[in-house]
Amino acid sequence: MCGIVGFLNLKEGIAHRDKAGETLNRMNSRIFSRGPDGEGVFIDNNVALAMRRLAIIDLNTGDQPIYNENKNIVVVFNGEIYNFKELKEELIKKGHKFYTNSDTEIIVHLYEEHGENFVNFLNGMFAIALYDMRDKKVLIVRDRMGIKPLHYTIKNGTFIFASELKALIEFDNIEKKLNYKSLYNYLTFEYVSAPNTIYENIHKLLPGEMLIINQSGIKKNKYWYPKIKKENHDIKELEQHIQELITSSIKYRLISDVPIGIFLSGGVDSTIITGVASKLIGDVNTFSIGFEEETFNELGYAKIASDYFGTKHNEMILSYRETIDLLRKIIEYLDEPLADASVIPTYLVSMLSRKHITVALSGDGGDELFLGYDTYKAYKISKLFRWIPDFLNGFIINSLSLIPASSKRISLEFKLKKFFSALKYKPEISNYLWWGAYPPHLKEKLFNKDVLNKINMKNSFEPIDYYEPYLKMLKDPLDRVNFLDLHLYLQDDLLPKVDRMSMANSLEVRVPFLDHRVVELALSIKNNLRLKGLNTKYILKRAMNEFIPPPLKKRPKIGFDIPLGPWLRNELKDYMLELLDKKKIEEDGIFNYEFIDKIIKDHLSKKNNNRQLLWPLIIFQNWKNIYKPQL
After folding, report:
1. DSSP letters of 526-547?
2. How would you write 385-409 as a 3-class SS string?
3. DSSP 8-class letter at 111
4. Please, what's the largest Cα pairwise distance for the chain?
5. What does the DSSP 8-state code read for residue 485?
6. DSSP 3-state assignment of 213?
7. In CATH, what class is 235-371+480-552?
8. How far is Cα 474 from Cα 225, in angstroms, rounded to an integer?
9. Cα gap 550→557, rounded to integer Å
C-alpha cells in the first residue's frame, strides 16, 4: 500500500531536473502517512514519478519504482494485486524474469505481455502510473470500483497527478480556485462527486478508467464498469456460488506479510467476513468503536459476533471530547469537504487497529451489492404514496414539522419528514434526498443570489445527470437507484472516507465485497432475491447463513453514525457557533447568514433536528479555514 505522485510533459520535457526533484519531494512528503516505510523516485527528461511505501507484501525487495528486465518500463503503484502469485507463475512460463517477490512487479511484465489490456487481468485495488520509455507513453489507471484514489490536472502542458489533493496542490503555482458547482452539489449529496473536485480544473480519475498519455495528447479508456444485467439463477446453485466467491475474495485479502485484522460492527457484512476469516486462518483480531450514547452504540452486536467466532476483540468508546480534538486533523486528511460524520469513528477504529495490525478487512460494499439500506425499503414503500397530490403531501410535511425534534439516533419523525419531502421527485432523486442534506428549495435560501446566478444550477442534480446515459439502459427504477449508489455514495463517500482515515493512520484496508467477481455476480441477481419484500440482503443471508450468529440474523440495519444532533445542542455548540459566525459568513459572501441563523436557532430550540443541514456547513467552513481556497 502506498501513495503516488508525479508529473510529465511528453512534448517539451521537464525544464530542470533539480527543480523537478524538489517539486516531486514536496508533493511526496504530503502523503507521508500513506507510506512511512520508504520512498522512491524516478525522473527522466519528460517524466517524474514518486511514491511512498507502506510495506505489506515482500518487505525486503518490494521497493518502488519497479522496472521490467530491460529497464525501459517503470511503474509506481498504490494498492494490492491479490492474484499476483497465479499471474507470476503464468508469466514465468512465458519467459519473464522477476527480481522481487512483490505484487508490483507483476504490472510491468503483464504490460509487456498484453499492452494496455494488462489491467483486465488484475484482481485488486490500485492506482497505477506506468511509463513505457520505448513508446514515450504513460498510463494512469484506477481500479474497477474506485477503492484507491487518483487526482489529476493539466497546467501549461504539464500533466500532474497524485493520490491525494493535498499532494497535487503542492505542485508549483497550482490554482486552488473554489469550484462553486462542486460546493452546490456537495450540499445536496454531502460529498464532492467524481470526476469533479472541490477545486476548479482539478479532477478525479473515475473508477475503471485509464488515461493514455503520449505526444499526441491524452486518450481516456473506460475499461470496466459495474453492469446491472439480470440472469435466471437456480437458488441453490446461486447460494453456493455466492459463498464460494465471497470465501475466495476473503482468502485473497488475507494474504499479507504483516499482521491483519477486521473492522467488526456486528452488522451482517463485517460479521460474515469475520466468520469466513476465522474459518480460514483461526485466530482473528477484530476492532470496534462504540459511543457513550446508548442508541448509537453497536458494541453489544460486535461482542456477540466476536464471542461466537472466538476473535481477539478490541474496542473503544468515543465521546464528544475526541470529536472536537480530532476534527481539524481529520478534515486536513480528507482534502475536500465530506459531511459523512462517520469519518470520526472510522479514523478512531483505524487508529485503534494500527496499534495491533497493518492490514484490516472492512465490510464496505455489501449494502450496495445486496440491497441492504433502508432507502431501498423506502423506495418500495414510496410506490404506495406517489399518487398523493402535491397539496396533500405539503399538508403532511407541514403537520410533521410541528412534531418536536427527537434526540434519538434516527427517529420516526425524522424519517417521515425526509420520506414525504422527497416524494415529488423521481425515485433516483428521492433516494439522494433521503440520504442527503439540502433539497433544491433550501439551497435557494442558503446561497447568496449572486452565487446562485454565477453557477446557474437551479434544481440541478448534476452528478445524477452525468450518469444519465447509463440510467437510460435500466428499466427498473430500483436498478437505477442501485446503480447510482454504486457510482456516487459508495465511490464518492464511503470509499474515500475509509481510504483517507485508514491511510492517515498508515493502515491498509481491504474490501472483500468489492472483488469485481463478487460485484458482477451480485448485479446479475434479480431484485426480488436481493430485497425480498422488505427483507434486505435476502440471498446473501441465505448463502452465508452459517457465518451469521443467530442473535444477529434479524438485527435492524444501523449505520456507522455519531450523535451529532444532541452534541450540536450541547458539547459542540460553541464550536458550531464559532465556525458559522455571522462576520465570517458575510465576509465570504457565499451563504445567506439569515438562513443559517434560523436553522441554528431551530436546532438549538429542538423545533427541528437540523444536524443534517448544519454539519455540511460546519465541515465546509472548517475545510475552508485550513486550505484557504480562492473564492
Report:
1. -HHHHSBTTBTTHHHHHHTGGG
2. CCCCCHHHHHHHHHHHCCCCCCCCC
3. H
4. 74
5. I
6. strand
7. alpha beta
8. 14
9. 15
Q: Which amino acid is at 104?
A: T
Which of 321, 328, 292 lies closest to 571, judged by CA?
321
Question: CA 512 from chain center: how many Å?
Answer: 14
pLDDT bracket for residue 582 (50, 70, 90):
very high
Average pLDDT, the chain: 88
CA angle (524, 527, 532) in 5-degree steps: 135
Is residue 229 over pLDDT 90?
no
Q: Which three cell numbers stand for residue 588?
A: 465570504
Domain ranges in the chain are 2-222, 235-371+480-552, 563-631
The SS3 assignment for 175 reads: coil
All three cell numbers of 513: 465485497
Grid cell for residue 226: 459495474
Nearest CA-CA partner of 510 in 143, 125, 242, 4: 125
Helix boundaries (H) for 313-411: 320-334, 343-354, 366-369, 374-382, 390-400
Among 95-109, 392-406, 569-583, the least confident range: 392-406
User: Grid coordinates in use for 591?
Assistant: 451563504
The topology (CATH level 3) of 2-222 is Glutamine Phosphoribosylpyrophosphate, subunit 1, domain 1 (3.60.20)
Range of 51-55, 228-232, 240-244 with top mean pLDDT:
240-244
pLDDT, tens digit, 9 for 90 and up, residues 448-458? 999 998 887 76
Cα–Cα dist 46/13, whole Å: 4
The answer to whether 108 and 73 have CB atoms below 8 angstroms apart is yes
Hey, what's the torsion of the CAs at 233, 236, 237, 242, to 10 degrees? 90
Q: pLDDT, tens digit, for every residue of 180-212? A: 999 999 998 999 999 999 999 999 999 999 999
Q: Kind and range of the H or E element at 251?
A: helix 235-252
User: Which position has the grid cell 441563523?
Assistant: 597
Omega of the bond leading into 563 within 30 degrees of 0 (cis): no
Residues 51, 131 contacting (CB under 8 angstroms): no
**Strand residues in 163-216 grouped as ranges (E):** 203-204, 209-214
Q: Which residue in 1, 2, 165, 378 is the catalytic one?
A: 2
Task: Give every CB contact of residue 372 below 8 A, 6+ residues apart in sequence.
Answer: 268, 269, 366, 536, 537, 557
ω before 65 within 30° of 0 (cis)? yes
Which of 545, 456, 494, 205 lies closest to 367, judged by CA?
494
Q: How far apart are CA 449 and CA 401, in angstroms?
A: 27
If you average pLDDT over residues 40-52, what whole number do you get? 92
**Cα–Cα distance list, 471 to 162, 428, 493, 505 (Å):** 31, 10, 20, 38
Residue of 172, 161, 106, 113 whose CA lies nearest to 139: 161
Active-site residue, 2 included:
yes
